[in-house]
Amino acid sequence: MTFKSIISAILVAILGLFFMLSTQNADLNLVYATLCCSPYVILMTIFYFHFNYIRRKLNLLHEPDIFFELAYGFVFYLAFCVLLPVLLFVGSIGDAYEHKLYADLGDLIFEMFPIFLILSSFLAVFSSLIIGWAIKSYKTLVAVIIICVISIPITYSIALDTHQYNRAKQKAETIANNIKEGYYEWHGSMSNPTAYPVQLYKGYFIFPKGEKYEFTFSEGNTVNYEAQWGEDGGDTGKQTMSLPKALDITWYSFAEDIFYRVNSPIDYNKLQMLFSKPYADKRGARNFEENYDKIIIGFAPGGLMVIWADGTGRRRIEIGHFQAEKVTISTPVSNKGKLEYGNLFNLEWRKKVLTDTMIVPLKIQQLTKNKPIPYGYWDKLRTSYNWRPTFVISPEIKIHDADFSFYNAERFVFLDESLQNNVHEKRGIPENVYIKWYDKNGNRCAVDFEFNEEKTFKKFDTFFNLRKNTRAELEFNINQISKTATATLKNGKEQLVLLESEIIEYGKKY
Fold first, then answer.
1. 433-469 confidence digits (pLDDT tens)
2. Which parts pass through the membrane (predicted)?
3. pTM
């Protein structure tokens, strides 16, 4: 009986501690504290299994009552849990440093009390199970152990989902409260074309009440490595603050050896509208609410500056574009022959930025060598027309989503109702469209439209400008029988095929 009781007690202690951790958003500190306290919990459960005076008096040892054991166990374990900080307080009296940690005994017990309640509940449940049905029979004990072990992943899964739900709920509440106060959690990011690196000289966000906030990108005023136009690079660090109503930014273009400055209001109302309302997105088969949390500032040759609002999901919207003025900075350029990292006025740094293959890949350097800078190209990418996407599919096909990436660096995902119910509006020219769906047998399928830049821009120009169309539909027709899909511009009887692509069949397990 003694051996079986000890094994049962250790099992109860381990299960109780594990399940308690499963219900907490446990960090390393809590895990470490749990491991340190586990010997005490094991002693506590062993004492529970051997302290039978009350149960003998009530004739409950040979025929245990599950409800009595639950109540008795909970009170027993809670009393011993509360005793732990008292023992730590008394035991550390001789050590000034340790005693200081437990000096405020009342606050310590109050802070730990919710965890004590949870741990006592789990210990009481497992102890009552084993005392009630398992202590007299090894066969029953094995069955109880199996049940407990099976319940571990179930409890962990439920606890994990609860944590995620609570975190999401808490985040949503925090965002809502901040929005009421005019604050949003966001950061600024810099962007530039791969071949044409830039560096911030001075940057200021100007907030609605006129406050100026000076910012830098990354560790000081550094450059982007292997930058992509429209993609976020070095950032200002996420903070909860107002959205800017204006920007005052001066930057240096290495390829042009020119400083540019934009000091201008931006579309604050559009920013506020986007940042104030979450939008839907999908990961796998699950729906999520996402938020805008980045303001990307793009710097292109010729002094073009474009601003996008970027979200945590697959969403990026242009806020505005600006033409900078050339400015002269009086600080002289140093030519000491020694590299000073990040120093805009160090000649060796300027040379390094243009020749470093980590900043501008070698292939890009070779393609642009001795070629003029294509001024106006990034403004041309912003060309937009009045159109909307439509989808022609078989009735049995269930569309998952349609992910649009545009040449103007915007991104938008159509899903659920927005797949079929979207309106004509000014949109950029698509660079890539990736559509996912499930066929009638539940197999996952997709089609990936990679639009050629030169051909697609010409076709849009022909359809809208030469044919004098004011608006159109871009129809995506998915044919499961021929295993092909087409993208076609349409306006009444007029139509122009942009691209045909093969359907990808991933299968059920994808």
1. 999 888 888 888 899 999 999 999 999 999 999 888 8
2. 6-23, 30-51, 71-91, 112-135, 141-160
3. 0.69
Tens-place pLDDT, residues 390-428: 988 877 777 778 999 999 999 999 887 667 778 899 999
Contact 232, 290 (CB under 8 A): no
Q: Which residues pair with 247 in a beta bridge?
A: 205, 264
Query: How do strand 430-438 and strand 425-428 relate by DSSP bridges?
Result: unpaired
- In 381-483, where do the E strands start and end? 384-392, 398-406, 411-414, 425-428, 430-438, 444-450, 472-479
CA distance 384 to 377: 14
All structural domains of the chain with their residue ranges:
2-178, 184-371, 384-507
- Using left for φ > 0, alpha for ψ between -120 and 50, and beta otherwise, residue 475 falls in beta
Cα dihedral value 161, 162, 167, 172, nearest 10: 100
Q: For residues 280 and 259, give the distance between their C-alpha atoms in angstroms, rounded to a whole number.
A: 40
Q: Which helix (H) or strand (E) holds 319?
A: strand 316-323
Of 14-18, 103-107, 337-341, the range with the highest mean pLDDT is 337-341
